[in-house]
Amino acid sequence: MKKTYKQCIAGLLGAALLVSTPVCAQAAGVVVAGGESGGANSQAGPGVSSGNVTEIPGRVDYFSASVSNPVVPTTASYSYERMVQDIQSLQARYGSHMTVNTIGTSLDGRAIYEIVLGNVNAEKHILIHAGIHAREHMTSLLVMKQLEYGLAFYNSGNYAGTSLSELLNRVAVHFVPMVNPDGIALCQNGIDAIRSSQLRDTIRQCYADDTAQGRTAASFEDYLLRWKSNARGVDLNQNFPADWEAVDSCPNPSYAVYRGPSALSELESQALAALADSRSWAASISYHSTGNLIYWDYAGNRVQQASGELATIVSANTGCPTANSSGHGGFKDWAQIKDNPIPSLTIETGSVACPLPLSEYADVWNRNKMVWALVALYAMNH
Questions:
Q1: Partners of 128 in the beta sheet?
Q2: What is the pLDDT of residues 339-372, one digit of tens each?
Q3: What is the reported pTM?
């Protein structure tokens, strides 16, 4: 088994092409959902009784159960205001199992929240963030749902033969559900959602420049629906110091693909980078849309083997294939090459253009509902 696992990883690192196989994932101490195919179409999921899972008396299969009277709604436009309300409601209901922090403030004055699920003094910690690109706001809903399910089944759930309470005592899961709250507010609610008149003027100038330079022919309203950047027209996931100078950037602030005036020029990217540098992390997951794809490697990756192992097991459980990162300036890329590097993945969710319609959510959830626990279990065993 060990030799087979090494062969799987060697093939992954050598060819940059992943074939998701149960033997690879099981060798890493993780149960594969639904055999070789895995993913959303599998009837059996992690925690379901099988030959690979030890039943825990009195505990429910976490991922086959439903939350009674859920706090987080399933909606196509999960807003910043609703997220803040939901964090407060979850804290009131499950306060002993979660810790709420703010890691920074956006350009337009919105707090950037970090919610820690589990023991803040745990030996291992993993970081999951979403909503860094405005039009990809379904990712914020996804991680808030992940958080709520972890809280609801904290004392009664199990994953792959391990109780959630034990898992979360040993591995703390840090969720940053909305890195780019200003951009999401703009994308969902239009220009009037931006409080600062200066930022509103910047956004209007972005539209004028993008129209003049041929990057858009859309109406202003449709243009904002496709907004990806923060409120200053900077693509936050091209703003990290991972070969930032090589980013294929447009020359001025834009709805997308402007890297900023310098690496880490933005309050939002600074906040996430400071969090990433605040401790030694066992792993990080960056949620994006679209494509149902996993990016796991980058030139100069200092944690290539661990990132490859994570890619193997997450691909096997989500049914999403893997690829190398082709761009620069991304959070995952920087996390893998920085001092005290982090084994990291970017997971692209959804199968159609963003913003994802609500019809995509069921598949997004079914593929990704277990990812936080999967990665936590990997961290606990390594």
A1: 175, 285
A2: 999 999 999 999 999 999 999 999 999 999 999 9
A3: 0.86
